[in-house]
Amino acid sequence: MILKTVKNAEEAVADISNGAMLMMGGFGLSGIPENCIAALLKKEVRDLTIVSNNAGVDDFGIGLFLQKRMVKKMISSYVGENDEFERQLLSGELEVELVPQGTLAERIRAGGAGIPAFFTPAGVGTEVAEGKEIREFNGKLYLMETGLTADFALVKAWKGDTAGNLIFKGTARNFNPMMATAGKITIAEVEELVPVGSLDPNAIHTPGIYVQRIFQGEKYEKRIEQRTVTA
Amino acid sequence: MILKTVKNAEEAVADISNGAMLMMGGFGLSGIPENCIAALLKKEVRDLTIVSNNAGVDDFGIGLFLQKRMVKKMISSYVGENDEFERQLLSGELEVELVPQGTLAERIRAGGAGIPAFFTPAGVGTEVAEGKEIREFNGKLYLMETGLTADFALVKAWKGDTAGNLIFKGTARNFNPMMATAGKITIAEVEELVPVGSLDPNAIHTPGIYVQRIFQGEKYEKRIEQRTVTA
Amino acid sequence: MLTKEQIAKRIAREVEHGQYINLGIGIPTLVANYIPSHLDVVLQSENGLLGIGPFPKEADVDPDLINAGKQTISMLPGSAIFDSAQSFAMIRGGHVHLTILGAMEVSEHGDIANWKIPGKMVKGMGGAMDLVASAKHIIVAMQHCSKDGQSKLLPTCSLPLTGIRCVKKIVTDLAVLEIDPAGGFVLLERAPGITVEEIKSKTAGKLIIKGEIPEMTFD
Amino acid sequence: MLTKEQIAKRIAREVEHGQYINLGIGIPTLVANYIPSHLDVVLQSENGLLGIGPFPKEADVDPDLINAGKQTISMLPGSAIFDSAQSFAMIRGGHVHLTILGAMEVSEHGDIANWKIPGKMVKGMGGAMDLVASAKHIIVAMQHCSKDGQSKLLPTCSLPLTGIRCVKKIVTDLAVLEIDPAGGFVLLERAPGITVEEIKSKTAGKLIIKGEIPEMTFD
After folding, report:
1. pTM, full prediction
2. Positions of chain C with pLDDT under 70
3. Contacts of D119 (CB under 8 A, 6+ apart)
4. Contact C160, C167 (CB under 8 A)
5. Given A35, A159, A219, C59, which residue has the most CB atoms within 10 angstroms?
6. What is the ipTM of this complex?
7. What is the least distance, in Å, from the CA of B11 to any CA of chain A?
8. Per the CB < 8 Å rule, is B90 touching D119?
């Protein structure tokens, strides 16, 4: 096996520099790469283009990048939980490409899978379709969307082995597996890093071939956005 | 949960009739739906269009359909292990569409995922590209392929629950998960059928939403094509 | 006028046995509470879960288990977890039978707008564009009028669209309506105590009234 | 003339540390036996496995564990299993670094034909078209001439193509050659006892000979 272990988040993100395009896993605050985010905040890299379904909240996740004005452009599907984001967007300080969530997921999968373009019905007849090719298949209209890759993909998994194989937990899986395939360099942080041979090959969510660096993260806060409970 | 259990293979394939288009899981003889194949052989349905990576061997798997002349057309990537197949093909008795294996896998996935078409580099400059749209993306040529669905998908899993959730074993997974998504009716036969709640939700390969009928198969032969061993 | 709970309760009557259903944020989420227990249905959350259960007990709260509204949830036996690409493969591929979602505006041709108010509010479309472009049956849950009294049932939408010719049915605080394939809101039911005249006056788009319009009843 | 094992042995020298590699059926499969143990590489099988191990002991034979040649195999620690769509996502997406496969013909521009002889043999392309259209580095293992003595290194292929301008290197029983980007087979090494003259006479395509051509050595 090819071993991918690095020491920690700082080492993992050491070569991410100003102007980089990053994919960051997570849905809301669930399954986000907390350690990589902290390391990047410390580095204060700037002019980042970030592909992430959401933009965090004002004081956690990608929201912290926005506070420090580290982001040039966001490619996301929903950014409703972040006031600072909305302010920077409406004032024109931040460039934003809003993409339907399924299209975003599929564009990332396509990018990782060597598929340069595909057709989807999402967005036909809306401003999302502007400037895009529309084509009819079997009597229904579709628009062409392109595959998406990034310089780095930062993903967060539950368990991982030193060969880069990953297993996610619950709905913290979300965008992480596709993003892992679409980074030129994919960095995985995991709650538990285990030796090669400890994971069931039949239960791997992301095969190690997609992961270039892996480390065990620490002090996961896993902040909850909407704590809803039954009495 | 929505329960999908049927009694056996006979009940599962009861409404498959002449002229149907079927997808059948498996790579070589590994992971093929043996019980459904036996039930269809008994029914002697004819004029089938079959999507399957391979065509079985002369006396097992889909090869048995060919012996009985039940097949009108095969859509496959490799049919080299079957002499009767090659004979019917060269003599023109059998219609065949040969598709690159990755393109076949992706066409099936696309069909199940509501993607009517996508671009792939496989086959550019070859006879596979004849009549297809060629387009350049980022300096490389790609051809457009279309999504594929079928009237029925027949898949074979290791374990399944009564809600249709499936787990495959080893390389018997192969084409089964994509085909499960692309059948208007998907029939899953499993080695072990367990009650809802017995499988780890985090380890499901095929979510039950894709499966309309499930039953526990019997007497799996699992014939080996090339028994290679180390002394 | 129906309460939010009553809108959810009324929509729950549209649910059929054996359906896989995606519930949007807000009133649609409440629908889950009113689906009759003799119907076997499965709720899909587009962030990657089939088999959403009730909100968890405090002790069972798991930050790694949320719905698309980022609320903590539980899983029912028989659940399956998957990634976002697989989730939208299900949606786009037509495997999810019913989508229930909110809207800012619906047009008499079934167009829907629910993601953007230019210059004012930009939250993003999330999964809504994929859902409305894909589901076989789409029901909108919303107030009949905006807070400043403007009808949200219009000849054409004024806000940026989420999808075109996709909405099949609308349940508001005043009425149940369905979209006529030729255009127009067909009035099916009135909320208790609401007259046809009132609905007519609060519907800016073409309202189609055929025969007597029954009043909804709730136990 | 190299034996099949020697062809495999020579190709194994092309393998680099850290590579993910797909080995085709036949001679390419033998390459696995000769990869130096100090190199960490991972073998991919396109039917859905990363981490192919040696053939199993008789007692460990598992019909649910085969390679793309339908041979029973074992898995190494750290393996991962996946479906065919994921497998070709890896291949098409350029995550597999090196592909080694057989051929019936190779042209001096790197075109390859290996799946069909019109009217005679139709086995299908399997995964070969995806592999040659995608891998960054492609090495062909084959005999220099066909059984009836015809050169398989041609100006242009006569058989239906598998892919165009994709082959980088060729190892035959007579020589190691690489494709010149401008066209032509650049002769790199001779098999023990084989003269440049013989290779020249058995290469129908343009052969490029620069300086002294070293003879391969095997321990």
Report:
1. 0.97
2. none
3. B90
4. no
5. A35
6. 0.97
7. 30
8. yes
